[in-house]
Write a structure and sequence with these properties.
The complex is a heterodimer of chains A (159) and B (82). Chain A is α+β, with helices and mostly antiparallel strands. Chain A is built from 4 helices and 9 strands. Chain A is globular, with a radius of gyration of 16 Å. In chain B, 27% of the residues lie in helices and 27% in strands. The chains are: A alpha+beta (159), B alpha+beta (82). Chain A: Belongs to the MoaE family. Chain A: Its EC number is 2.8.1.12.
Chain lengths: 159, 82
Amino acid sequence: MSAENASNSQHSIAVQQADFDVAHEYAELRNDNRSDGAVVFFTGLVREMNQGSQVSGLTLEHYPGMTEKALQQIVADACSRWPVNRVRLIHRVGTLAISDQIVFVGVSSSHREAAFDACYYIMDYLKNRAPFWKKEVTSDGERWVEALDKDKQALDKWQ
Amino acid sequence: MNILFFAALREQLGCTHCDIDLPLPASLATVRAALIQYFPQQAEQLAQGRALAAINQTLINDEDTLINSNDEVAFFPPVTGG
């Protein structure tokens, strides 16, 4: 699966099977960037305990086309809300193992407040609006992860 | 009308998509009701509040939204990425 980039050259949005390199992403947020004083990034990882079960791995399914479109909309919304200059967003799909990286959200801005808030906002909306679904392999067999109310409630802080 | 399914709903229905004959345009509520009639065993999973719907790859909350013949329609469970 090839990475697809958003149209805005300042932002990069990719849905891919391949792993990513945080140092490379960070460098892309910093390189030739004289105006920004802050970079904030988040990485999400596969952890071994979830919803009360031992997890040995997971598969991530998505809706090709819609997923990229939803991510672009979330990034555009964040950029209209905060003075953000660069956003790099990667979400992996396919089969992943414990400790594997799932998602990267990196944001650069002149000041830290906007970078922190925009990064947090993008993750909160991604968890509620972007069509990805996790299926875990546990000691009791395979199961689809249930959406959590707390993720839905996380959007309240941005209202 | 061709309707796409994803994730747990795709597995419960046993298909990645289905074709349903309906007079168009039809509201999202009408399409959902037709799907439930088509898959009565999965009525609960297809109900409003359980299955999300997207029209042309955009999430739609308003069940009165009209669907036309060229629209891409999909139903799927609440998302769990990140």
